[in-house]
Task: inverse folding
C-alpha cells in the first residue's frame, strides 16, 4: 500500500519536474504494473498540451519495447497494452478525466490548471481503484492559482500539525521575504543548480535577475509568489520577532474568510499584562468549511477570557453560544489598525511562533493607501492574505487600552 494518496512537488523551472513525471509514468506502466499485479490506467495532463505531449514522445519508444501500441497524432496521444493497461494524454480542460477510471493521475504546472479539472475531473476518476496515486507538479503560482493554493496549504497544515497525512508535499523555495538579489538563497529553489553546463547555472540565474521582468523571474526561477514586491513589511521583519515561549491565554480571536468563502482562518492575539506594549500572536486554524470552522472556534473559546472577532458574513451565522462575546466591525477598523500594527511589527513588539502559513500570508501582503491611511489589499497581494488580515484585527484590538476596548468585534474582507 502506498504511503500517500496525493503528491505535490514544487520547484523553480528547469529543475527536473518533467523528468520526475516521465520516470513515474514509465515505471508505473512497466515494473509498477507487474508489482501491482493488474492492468493499470494512467492519465496525464498539463497546462499546455504540447508539454504533456513532449513527455509522451520521450516515453513512447520505451513503452513500445515493453509491448505497448502507441498513437502519436496531436491531441489524441495514447498508449495501450494487450493486458488492458492504458496511458491517455489529455488537455487540462473540463473534459479531462471524465469517462475514465485511473490508477495514476499526473497533472503538470497546476498553477495554471483550474481546480475543477483536478477536483471534479481527475481525482474522482480514481475512486473505484485500489491504492491510487495522483501527482501534482508546479512552480509558484499567482492569486488566480486556486488549485495550487489549496493543495499547498493542505500540505503546510499537515507539516505544522506534525501529524502524518495522505498528502506528500515537497517544495524547494526560499523564505518569502528574502532579498532576491542575495545569491545565497537561489539554490533553495533550484535543486539542480550548479556551474555552467549543468541544468541551472548561477550565470543563467544572474541573467534572469537582471532582465526586464523581475516578477516573472521571482516566480519562475526562485519559486516565489512575488511577495517581496510591494510588501507592507521589509525583509526579515516578521522573522525577527519569532519566539519559542508558550503563548499567553485570553485575548482576541479574529476570524476571516477568503474572497470565495471557501477557506476560513483564525488568528489569536493577547496583550502582555506586565508589558502592555507587547503582544503575542499565533494562527489558530485554517479550515475549508463552516462546520470545521465552528469546531475550531469552540476549541479556542473554551478559554472564557477570549473575545471573538468575526467578519459580517460570519457574524450572521454565529452560534448563539457565543452571545455576549462577539460583535461586528468592518473595513473602517481594519484601515485604522493597519498602520499601528505595522509599526508594532517593525519595532518587534508582536511576538509569534514559527508558523509557515502565517509567515507566508504576512510576508506577501501588500498595503494600499486608503483615505490617508494604510490597509491590506487582498486584490493587490500576490496570493492569499487572510491570516495577515486576521493578525491586524487581533493585534489591533489586543493593543487597545483595556478601559476602551469593547467586549467583542468582527472584521471584514476587502
Result:
Amino acid at each position: 500500500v502506498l504511503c500517500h494518496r496525493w503528491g505535490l512537488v514544487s520547484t523553480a523551472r528547469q529543475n527536473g519536474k518533467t523528468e520526475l513525471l516521465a520516470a513515474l509514468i514509465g515505471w508505473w506502466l512497466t515494473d509498477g504494473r507487474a508489482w501491482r499485479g493488474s492492468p493499470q490506467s494512467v492519465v496525464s495532463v498539463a497546462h499546455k498540451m504540447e508539454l504533456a505531449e513532449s513527455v509522451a514522445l520521450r516515453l513512447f519508444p520505451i513503452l513500445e519495447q515493453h509491448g505497448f501500441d502507441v498513437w502519436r497524432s496531436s491531441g489524441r496521444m495514447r498508449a495501450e497494452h494487450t493486458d488492458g493497461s492504458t496511458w491517455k494524454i489529455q488537455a487540462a480542460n473540463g473534459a479531462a478525466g471524465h469517462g475514465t477510471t485511473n490508477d495514476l493521475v499526473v497533472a503538470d504546472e497546476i498553477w495554471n490548471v483550474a481546480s475543477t479539472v483536478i477536483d471534479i475531473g481527475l481525482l474522482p476518476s480514481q475512486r473505484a481503484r485500489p491504492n491510487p496515486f495522483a501527482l501534482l507538479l508546479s512552480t509558484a503560482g499567482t492569486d488566480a492559482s486556486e488549485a495550487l493554493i489549496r493543495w499547498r496549504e493542505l500540505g503546510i497544515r499537515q507539516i505544522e500539525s506534525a501529524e502524518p497525512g495522505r498528502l506528500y508535499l515537497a517544495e524547494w523555495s526560499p523564505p518569502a521575504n528574502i532579498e532576491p538579489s542575495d545569491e545565497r538563497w537561489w539554490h533553495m529553489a533550484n535543486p539542480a543548480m550548479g556551474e555552467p553546463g549543468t541544468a541551472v547555472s548561477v550565470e543563467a540565474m544572474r541573467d534572469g535577475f537582471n532582465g526586464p521582468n523581475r516578477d516573472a523571474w521571482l516566480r519562475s526561477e526562485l519559486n516565489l509568489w512575488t511577495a517581496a514586491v510591494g510588501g507592507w513589511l521589509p525583509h526579515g521583519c516578521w522573522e525577527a520577532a519569532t519566539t519559542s515561549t508558550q503563548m499567553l491565554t485570553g485575548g482576541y480571536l479574529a476570524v476571516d474568510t477568503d474572497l470565495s468563502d471557501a477557506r476560513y482562518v483564525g488568528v489569536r492575539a493577547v496583550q502582555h499584562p506586565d508589558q502592555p506594549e507587547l503582544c503575542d500572536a499565533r494562527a489558530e486554524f485554517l479550515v475549508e468549511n463552516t462546520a470545521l470552522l465552528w469546531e475550531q472556534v469552540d476549541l479556542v473559546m473554551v478559554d472564557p477570557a477570549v473575545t471573538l472577532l468575526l467578519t459580517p458574513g460570519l457574524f450572521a451565522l454565529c452560534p448563539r453560544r457565543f452571545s455576549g462575546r462577539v460583535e461586528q466591525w468592518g473595513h473602517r477598523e481594519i484601515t485604522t489598525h493597519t498602520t499601528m500594527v505595522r509599526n508594532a511589527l517593525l519595532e518587534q513588539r508582536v511576538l509569534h511562533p514559527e508558523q509557515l502559513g502565517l509567515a507566508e500570508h504576512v510576508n506577501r501582503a501588500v498595503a494600499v493607501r486608503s483615505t490617508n491611511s494604510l490597509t491590506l489589499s487582498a486584490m493587490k497581494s500576490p496570493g492569499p492574505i487572510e491570516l495577515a488580515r486576521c493578525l491586524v484585527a487581533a493585534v489591533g484590538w489586543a493593543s487597545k487600552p483595556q478601559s476602551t476596548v469593547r467586549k467583542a468585534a468582527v472584521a471584514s474582507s476587502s
The longest strand covers residues 279-287. The CA atoms of residues 46 and 52 lie 5 Å apart.
